[in-house]
Amino acid sequence: MNYLAHAYLAGPLAADRIGGVIGDFVKGPLPAGLGDALAAGVSLHRRIDSFADSHPAFRRSRARISDARRRVSGVMVDMFYDHLLALHWAHFSPEPLAGFTADTYRLIAACAEPLPASFAPVFERMAAHDWLASYRDAANVALALDRMARFRLHRPNPLAGAGDELHAAFDGLQADFFAFIPDALAFAAQVRASR
Q: pTM for the complete prediction?
Protein backbone atom coordinates (compact mmCIF):
# COMPACT_ATOMS: atom_id res chain seq x y z
CA MET A 1 0.00 0.00 0.00
CA ASN A 2 1.12 3.52 -0.68
CA TYR A 3 0.32 6.80 1.09
CA LEU A 4 -3.36 7.17 0.14
CA ALA A 5 -4.34 3.59 0.95
CA HIS A 6 -2.48 3.71 4.26
CA ALA A 7 -4.18 6.99 5.21
CA TYR A 8 -7.57 5.54 4.30
CA LEU A 9 -7.09 2.15 5.98
CA ALA A 10 -5.80 3.83 9.15
CA GLY A 11 -9.33 4.80 10.15
CA PRO A 12 -10.60 7.83 12.04
CA LEU A 13 -7.84 8.48 14.60
CA ALA A 14 -5.36 11.23 13.70
CA ALA A 15 -2.35 9.36 15.11
CA ASP A 16 -3.20 6.26 13.07
CA ARG A 17 -3.58 8.29 9.87
CA ILE A 18 -0.30 10.14 10.47
CA GLY A 19 1.42 6.86 11.36
CA GLY A 20 0.03 5.34 8.17
CA VAL A 21 1.55 8.06 6.02
CA ILE A 22 4.94 8.25 7.78
CA GLY A 23 5.29 4.48 8.24
CA ASP A 24 7.89 3.93 5.52
CA PHE A 25 10.10 6.64 7.04
CA VAL A 26 10.28 5.02 10.49
CA LYS A 27 13.05 2.47 10.65
CA GLY A 28 13.81 -0.16 13.25
CA PRO A 29 11.89 -1.36 16.26
CA LEU A 30 9.07 0.72 17.65
CA PRO A 31 8.55 3.11 19.33
CA ALA A 32 11.62 4.49 17.46
CA GLY A 33 11.40 7.79 19.33
CA LEU A 34 7.66 8.15 18.71
CA GLY A 35 4.94 8.56 21.29
CA ASP A 36 2.67 5.60 21.95
CA ALA A 37 -0.16 6.75 19.67
CA LEU A 38 2.05 7.45 16.64
CA ALA A 39 3.99 4.23 17.22
CA ALA A 40 0.66 2.37 17.17
CA GLY A 41 -0.15 4.07 13.84
CA VAL A 42 3.19 2.99 12.37
CA SER A 43 2.64 -0.52 13.71
CA LEU A 44 -0.74 -0.59 11.96
CA HIS A 45 1.01 0.51 8.73
CA ARG A 46 3.48 -2.36 9.06
CA ARG A 47 0.77 -4.91 9.75
CA ILE A 48 -1.23 -3.72 6.73
CA ASP A 49 1.89 -4.10 4.56
CA SER A 50 2.38 -7.67 5.81
CA PHE A 51 -1.29 -8.44 5.24
CA ALA A 52 -1.12 -7.07 1.68
CA ASP A 53 2.01 -9.03 0.82
CA SER A 54 0.30 -12.30 1.71
CA HIS A 55 -3.18 -11.57 0.30
CA PRO A 56 -4.10 -13.67 -2.76
CA ALA A 57 -5.48 -10.70 -4.74
CA PHE A 58 -2.38 -8.60 -4.09
CA ARG A 59 -0.22 -11.54 -5.11
CA ARG A 60 -2.24 -11.95 -8.31
CA SER A 61 -1.64 -8.27 -9.06
CA ARG A 62 2.10 -8.71 -8.57
CA ALA A 63 2.02 -11.67 -10.95
CA ARG A 64 0.44 -9.43 -13.62
CA ILE A 65 3.62 -7.32 -13.75
CA SER A 66 6.07 -8.17 -16.53
CA ASP A 67 9.05 -10.39 -15.81
CA ALA A 68 11.37 -7.45 -16.48
CA ARG A 69 9.83 -5.54 -13.54
CA ARG A 70 8.88 -8.44 -11.26
CA ARG A 71 11.53 -7.43 -8.71
CA VAL A 72 9.76 -4.08 -8.13
CA SER A 73 6.23 -5.38 -8.60
CA GLY A 74 5.30 -4.71 -4.96
CA VAL A 75 6.13 -1.01 -5.32
CA MET A 76 4.19 -0.85 -8.57
CA VAL A 77 1.10 -2.56 -7.19
CA ASP A 78 1.16 -0.27 -4.14
CA MET A 79 0.99 2.72 -6.50
CA PHE A 80 -1.58 1.10 -8.78
CA TYR A 81 -3.86 0.38 -5.81
CA ASP A 82 -3.60 4.02 -4.71
CA HIS A 83 -4.67 4.99 -8.23
CA LEU A 84 -7.63 2.63 -8.10
CA LEU A 85 -8.64 3.84 -4.64
CA ALA A 86 -8.50 7.47 -5.80
CA LEU A 87 -10.33 6.64 -9.02
CA HIS A 88 -13.16 4.89 -7.17
CA TRP A 89 -13.03 7.04 -4.02
CA ALA A 90 -16.76 7.82 -4.00
CA HIS A 91 -17.43 4.08 -3.75
CA PHE A 92 -15.52 3.93 -0.44
CA SER A 93 -16.14 7.26 1.27
CA PRO A 94 -18.89 9.88 1.39
CA GLU A 95 -16.20 12.51 2.01
CA PRO A 96 -14.78 13.98 -1.21
CA LEU A 97 -11.23 12.90 -1.95
CA ALA A 98 -9.97 16.50 -1.90
CA GLY A 99 -11.43 16.98 1.58
CA PHE A 100 -9.85 13.76 2.87
CA THR A 101 -6.43 14.64 1.48
CA ALA A 102 -6.59 18.23 2.80
CA ASP A 103 -7.55 16.89 6.23
CA THR A 104 -4.67 14.40 6.11
CA TYR A 105 -2.14 17.14 5.32
CA ARG A 106 -3.62 19.33 8.07
CA LEU A 107 -3.32 16.51 10.63
CA ILE A 108 0.30 15.90 9.70
CA ALA A 109 1.21 19.60 9.74
CA ALA A 110 -0.44 20.04 13.16
CA CYS A 111 1.24 16.99 14.72
CA ALA A 112 2.88 18.08 17.97
CA GLU A 113 5.39 15.22 17.90
CA PRO A 114 8.58 15.41 15.87
CA LEU A 115 8.21 13.31 12.73
CA PRO A 116 11.09 11.50 11.00
CA ALA A 117 13.53 14.03 9.53
CA SER A 118 13.55 12.23 6.19
CA PHE A 119 9.79 12.72 5.91
CA ALA A 120 9.85 16.54 6.15
CA PRO A 121 10.98 17.33 2.56
CA VAL A 122 8.70 14.63 1.17
CA PHE A 123 5.72 15.99 3.09
CA GLU A 124 6.42 19.50 1.85
CA ARG A 125 6.17 18.34 -1.78
CA MET A 126 3.31 15.94 -1.04
CA ALA A 127 1.11 18.64 0.46
CA ALA A 128 2.10 21.36 -2.03
CA HIS A 129 1.21 19.17 -5.02
CA ASP A 130 -1.58 17.12 -3.36
CA TRP A 131 0.05 13.83 -4.24
CA LEU A 132 -2.71 11.80 -2.59
CA ALA A 133 -5.51 13.16 -4.79
CA SER A 134 -3.25 13.35 -7.84
CA TYR A 135 -3.08 9.53 -7.88
CA ARG A 136 -6.54 9.60 -9.47
CA ASP A 137 -4.79 10.41 -12.76
CA ALA A 138 -2.83 7.46 -14.18
CA ALA A 139 -0.32 9.88 -15.74
CA ASN A 140 0.59 11.12 -12.26
CA VAL A 141 1.11 7.56 -11.05
CA ALA A 142 3.42 6.95 -14.02
CA LEU A 143 5.30 10.17 -13.23
CA ALA A 144 5.66 9.16 -9.56
CA LEU A 145 7.10 5.79 -10.58
CA ASP A 146 9.53 7.48 -12.97
CA ARG A 147 10.66 9.84 -10.20
CA MET A 148 11.02 6.94 -7.80
CA ALA A 149 13.23 5.20 -10.35
CA ARG A 150 15.54 8.22 -10.42
CA PHE A 151 15.52 9.53 -6.88
CA ARG A 152 14.29 7.00 -4.31
CA LEU A 153 15.89 3.77 -5.43
CA HIS A 154 19.63 4.16 -5.36
CA ARG A 155 20.57 1.16 -7.43
CA PRO A 156 19.68 0.52 -11.07
CA ASN A 157 16.03 -0.48 -11.31
CA PRO A 158 13.33 -1.07 -13.93
CA LEU A 159 10.72 1.36 -12.57
CA ALA A 160 11.12 3.93 -15.35
CA GLY A 161 8.19 3.52 -17.72
CA ALA A 162 6.36 1.25 -15.28
CA GLY A 163 3.16 3.26 -15.64
CA ASP A 164 2.60 1.50 -18.97
CA GLU A 165 1.91 -1.71 -17.05
CA LEU A 166 -1.07 -0.12 -15.32
CA HIS A 167 -2.73 0.33 -18.71
CA ALA A 168 -1.69 -3.09 -19.97
CA ALA A 169 -3.18 -4.99 -17.01
CA PHE A 170 -5.83 -2.48 -15.89
CA ASP A 171 -8.88 -4.76 -15.87
CA GLY A 172 -7.13 -7.52 -13.93
CA LEU A 173 -5.56 -5.08 -11.47
CA GLN A 174 -8.91 -3.43 -10.88
CA ALA A 175 -10.58 -6.80 -10.22
CA ASP A 176 -7.79 -7.71 -7.80
CA PHE A 177 -8.11 -4.37 -6.03
CA PHE A 178 -11.86 -4.81 -5.51
CA ALA A 179 -11.21 -8.30 -4.12
CA PHE A 180 -8.48 -6.99 -1.81
CA ILE A 181 -9.83 -3.75 -0.35
CA PRO A 182 -12.79 -5.15 1.68
CA ASP A 183 -10.45 -7.67 3.32
CA ALA A 184 -7.87 -4.94 4.01
CA LEU A 185 -10.54 -2.72 5.58
CA ALA A 186 -11.73 -5.57 7.79
CA PHE A 187 -8.17 -6.46 8.78
CA ALA A 188 -7.25 -2.87 9.67
CA ALA A 189 -10.45 -2.46 11.71
CA GLN A 190 -9.67 -5.70 13.56
CA VAL A 191 -6.14 -4.53 14.40
CA ARG A 192 -7.43 -1.18 15.65
CA ALA A 193 -10.14 -2.86 17.76
CA SER A 194 -7.66 -5.27 19.36
CA ARG A 195 -5.42 -2.53 20.81
A: 0.95
